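Re-run with default settings, no changes from the original entry. Doing this only to confirm the output is reproducible before filing.
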Amino acid sequence: MEKERNLAFVEEKAYQMRLKMNVTQYEFAKLLDVSTSYVSNWENGYNEITIVILNKICNICHVSFDYMMGFTKKVQDTIFLKEIDKKYLGSKLREIRKKENLTQEKMAKKINTHRFLISDYETGRKSISTADLKQICETFGYSADYCVGKIKECIRYKPVKKLKPREMKDLISN
């Protein structure tokens, strides 16, 4: 009997992809060039998959970032991207922020992170976390594949409206 899983969306998708490939954690780790404990840790909810590893999973499994992040149910292949270019990704994040007419501070607030991280992501000083990329794409309705450079055409999805604590409280009380 399998234990109950409570993983973040991307980690659950990666787990499902591993099962679909019918490979062990050890074999999957070898394909990704990571340790078996790293795979085990994300499958048990102890850490998140980095954007670099997510790119490798997408390349190996022939799926898109958008599929792995739940923006599309279609298993669509995108171009093979050897590695994520932090500066390119940063320029796309800056482009999104400018199109949304937001300061770094306001964007950070919308995705529940710190302004200095938005600055670091935009300049390419720091690699964006998978969770922050997913949050930006969900909040503003942009394709993650577009942001990382796997596709050149800007695909838009319907933004996910996040409920504020007060709205949640109202829903629960009704």
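The longest helix spans residues 86-99. Confidence is low (pLDDT under 50) at residues 1-6.
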